[in-house]
């Protein structure tokens, strides 16, 4: 078997996935920081009137 044909050990697979996860985390960190700055993760303010559910008017 050539070196490229050998199956990877589980430990090296785990290290590879850890490195991939860290690279993705570092790549997208500025985007998540931007979303946090503009308040994207904050809940929307409550509406004063109840929302129409299934196209029907709310009961009085």
Structure at a glance:
Helices cover 47% and strands 0% of the residues. With 60 residues, the protein is mostly helical.
Main features:
elongated, 47% helix, 60 residues, mainly alpha
Commentary on this structure:
With 60 residues, the chain is mainly α. The chain has a domain at 11-41. Helix content is 47%, strand content 0%. The chain has 1 helix and no strands. It is elongated, with a radius of gyration of 24 Å. The N and C termini lie far apart (77 Å).
The arrangement of helices and strands along the chain is H
Low-confidence stretches: none
For the sheet with most strands, the description reads: none
Note the gap between the termini. Answer: 77 Å
The total of helices stands at 1
Strand proportion: under 5%
Any idea what the radius of gyration is?
Answer: 24 Å
Would you report the number of β strands? 0
Mean pLDDT metric: 80
Give the helix/strand class. mainly alpha
Percentage of residues in helical conformation: 40-55%
Anisotropy-based shape? elongated
Secondary structure topology:
Elements: H1 10-37
């Amino acid at each position: 078997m050539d070196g490229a044909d050998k199956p990877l050990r589980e430990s090296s697979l785990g290290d590879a996935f850890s490195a991939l996860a860290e690279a993705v985390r570092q790549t997208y960190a500025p985007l998540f920081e931007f979303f946090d700055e503009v308040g994207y993760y904050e809940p929307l303010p409550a509406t004063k009137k109840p929302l129409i559910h299934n196209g029907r008017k709310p009961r009085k």
